[in-house]
Specification:
Order of helices and strands: EHHEHE
CATH topology of one domain: Ribosomal Protein L30, Chain: A
Low-confidence stretches: none
Radius of gyration: 23 Å
CATH superfamily of one domain: Ribosomal protein L7/L12, C-terminal domain/Adaptor protein ClpS
Strand content: 15-25%
Distance between the termini: 61 Å
Shape: elongated
Number of strands: 3
Length: 102
């Protein structure tokens, strides 16, 4: 039979050694079907590029065949990639966007 007025204590240890999420590159791959206008608009809409930066990045993708458009934690990189691919599909473009570890 338990004794009255006994107190049970539990020690809680808080861990503060959190690790920073690993970053991933979002990479656009050039193709001959997806228009400059679509690539620019996706950079503006999904990645919040300025008009001049979107123009420069679109030309870089075209000239080099691919380019890293953002470096983000994995979940954000995946989400933005899905947003762009959905927009591309709805617009009839075969744009390829890859996510790779930095």
């Amino acid at each position: 039979m338990p004794q009255p007025n006994t107190v049970e204590r539990t020690r809680i240890e808080i861990k503060t050694d959190l690790t920073q999420p690993t970053d991933y590159s979002v990479i656009y791959v050039n193709d001959e079907m997806t228009t400059f206008d679509f690539v620019m608009s996706s950079l503006l809409e999904v990645f919040s590029y300025s008009i001049s930066d979107a123009d420069i990045m679109t030309h870089t993708i075209h000239d080099q065949g691919h380019a890293v458009v953002a470096v983000l934690p994995y979940e954000m990189a995946e989400q933005k990639t899905l947003e762009v691919l959905t927009l591309a599909k709805l617009s009839g473009y075969p744009l390829v966007v890859k996510v790779e570890p930095v």
